[in-house]
């Protein structure tokens, strides 16, 4: 089965073959018949040629036909070559533009892929807005998942000889404020630790601050604990303390260091009831 284009090509080949047979083979004999016949108009006079003259004529005739055919073929090929050359040049510039666009997209994709790959190791936190005041040992199991939650503890001890071993001891012997973050990244965060605390924008002068770090697995909750010998809740309720500021430091699995800040502002509503407005900064690389 031939489609329309194939049928057209076949018909063209057949016509060319018929033309070749007609012009090259049959036409010379027709001319010979006309020339040598006295009865055919306008050659109705007696004309006789020697065979060598006739063969010379035929040679010249066929040579002329061949020249015309070859000239036409050369002209046709030159025309087709120019068309193909123009098309090739046009396609070349189109391909150059496509290559430029593909190169731009490739560079963008490489950059995006690098950012995606880097983001796997960049710590990401979300603030769960869960705050706890002065939790005691008997309430820890009720408020927290001791086995699964991570605890970053910052406590201010009064004497250098004071030593606390357990989480329960800190909550039992200190006044505490706890707020909650979650590791939304794909990798574990290592050595998450507070390195500085400020009250009302100033460093705390009394006591010695001890910071205990923790590791936070992907999807794990971290409880950020601020433990003091003075009652934070009471001082906030009285208006003496209006804000707390925390600076945190951490590492990813590649050992790269990152920092993060947390600003907490307090508005007393009534006794032992505080509105907490907290702002967690993005994590940035050192």
Number of domains: 2
Q: Distance between termini?
A: 73 Å
DSSP helix fraction: 40-55%
Structural class: alpha+beta
- Write the H/E string, N to C: HHEHEHEEEEEEHEEEE
Biggest sheet record: 7 strands, antiparallel
> Can you tell me the residue ranges where pLDDT is under 50 for at least 5 consecutive residues?
none
Percent strand: 25-35%
- The total count of helices amounts to 5
- Count all strands and give the number: 12
Oligomer designation = single chain
Descriptive account of the structure:
The chain has 286 residues and is α+β, with helices and mostly antiparallel strands. 42% of the residues lie in helices and 31% in strands. The strands form two sheets. Strands 4, 5, 7, 9, 10, 11 and 12 form a seven-stranded antiparallel β-sheet that branches. A five-stranded mixed β-sheet has the order 1-3-8-2-6, with helices on one face. The two termini are 73 Å apart.
Features of the shown structure:
286 residues; alpha+beta; 2 domains; 7-stranded antiparallel beta sheet; 5 helices; 42% helix; 31% strand; rod-shaped
Strand and helix map with partners:
Blueprint: H1 4-36, H2 51-119, E1 125-133, H3 140-143, E2 150-157, H4 167-173, E3 175-183, E4 189-199, E5 202-203, E6 208-212, E7 214-216, E8 221-228, H5 232-237, E9 243-251, E10 257-270, E11 273-280, E12 284-285
Parallel strand pairs: 2-8
Antiparallel strand pairs: 1-3, 2-6, 3-8, 4-5, 4-7, 4-9, 9-10, 10-11, 10-12
Keywords: Membrane, Transmembrane, Transmembrane helix
Nutshell version of this structure?
Keywords: Membrane, Transmembrane, Transmembrane helix. With 286 residues, the chain is of the alpha+beta class.
């Amino acid at each position: 089965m031939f489609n329309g284009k194939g049928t057209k090509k076949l018909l063209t080949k057949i016509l060319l073959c018929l033309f070749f047979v007609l012009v090259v083979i049959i036409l010379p004999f027709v001319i010979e018949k006309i020339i040598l016949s006295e009865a055919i108009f306008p050659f109705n006079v007696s004309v006789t040629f020697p065979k060598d003259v006739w063969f010379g004529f035929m040679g010249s005739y066929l040579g002329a036909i061949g020249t015309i055919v070859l000239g036409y073929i050369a002209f046709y090929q030159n025309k087709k070559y120019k068309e193909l050359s123009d098309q090739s040049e046009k396609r070349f510039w189109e391909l150059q533009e496509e290559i430029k666009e593909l190169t731009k997209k490739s560079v963008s994709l490489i950059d995006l892929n690098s950012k995606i790959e880097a983001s796997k190791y960049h710590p990401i936190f979300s603030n769960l807005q869960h705050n706890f005041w002065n939790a005691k040992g008997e309430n820890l199991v009720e408020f927290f998942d001791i086995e699964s939650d991570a605890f970053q503890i910052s406590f201010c001890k009064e004497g250098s000889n004071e030593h606390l071993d357990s989480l329960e001891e800190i909550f039992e012997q200190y006044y505490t404020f706890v707020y909650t973050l979650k590791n939304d990244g794909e990798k574990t965060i290592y050595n998450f630790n507070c390195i500085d605390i400020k009250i009302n924008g100033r460093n705390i002068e009394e006591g010695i601050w001890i910071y205990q770090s923790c590791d936070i697995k992907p999807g794990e909750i971290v409880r950020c604990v601020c433990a003091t010998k003075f009652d934070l809740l009471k001082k906030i309720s009285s208006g003496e303390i209006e804000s707390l500021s925390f600076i945190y430091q951490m590492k990813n699995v590649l050992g790269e260091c990152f920092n993060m800040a947390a600003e907490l502002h307090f508005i007393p509503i009534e006794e032992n009831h505080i509105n907490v407005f907290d702002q967690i900064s993005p994590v940035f690389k050192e």
